[in-house]
Specification:
alpha+beta; Immunoglobulin-like; 4-stranded mixed β-sheet; 4-stranded antiparallel β-sheet; coiled coil; Lipoprotein
């Protein structure tokens, strides 16, 4: 009876425990270990960039809408508002089309597992991309603009080759603030470039 109870408890613990790390084999049998402290998902970084751009647009629109109707600058201000609102709409479409990593792969550790997610990993080494991206380059700089790491070699992610790929950069450790510039091209030939700043 005690043995049965022990195995039931063991089974319950193993089924309810959270997956903290992911282990996989890369090129030449190189082991890849993903933790919440050593990688970032490109989709999350683009999401932060777009959300920041939308906030910036909202602030500009709010200011422009305060221009009085009898002001000589009113027509120009309204034209700028229309242009900014088109820009915002375009960003919102981009945001709605983005792929969430957790929706694709359950069980991966969450990078920078904090309420807002916008932190600098303790030991940054990997960037994950979805398989729809055909070309990508990542450049990481410190607050003074010094390049800390750069890579443009996409590698299919072991065991998830049809869903994910990754870039590996030299390990970046103990940085409180970094700037990440990502340029990419998808399978349809659409190109984009964006910069995101992360701070602890």
């Amino acid at each position: 009876m005690k043995t049965k109870l022990f195995f039931i408890i063991l089974l319950f613990v193993s089924l309810t425990s959270c997956v903290k790390d992911y282990y996989g084999g890369g090129p030449s049998k190189e082991e890849i270990v993903l933790t919440s402290e050593n990688y970032l998902y490109e989709g999350d970084l683009e999401k932060y960039f777009i959300e920041d751009e939308i906030l910036s647009i909202d602030a500009k629109v709010e200011k422009l809408k305060k221009v009085p109707t009898d002001s000589p600058d009113y027509k120009d201000a309204q034209a700028q508002v229309n242009q900014l609102e088109e820009e915002k709409s375009s960003y919102e479409v981009r945001l709605s089309e983005m792929i969430n990593l957790s929706a694709v792969l359950k069980g991966f550790p969450i990078p920078c597992d904090l309420p807002n997610g916008k932190c600098v990993p303790v030991r940054l080494e990997f960037f994950l991309f979805n398989a729809f991206i055909t070309k990508a380059e990542v450049l990481v700089k410190d607050v003074e603009g010094k390049i800390l790491g750069v890579s443009a070699t996409l590698i299919p992610f072991p065991e998830f080759e049809s869903e994910l790929q990754y870039l590996k950069i030299p390990v970046i450790e103990n940085q409180d603030q970094i700037s990440i510039i990502i340029s990419k091209m998808d399978a349809l030939g659409n190109e984009s470039i964006f910069e995101t700043k992360l701070k602890n």
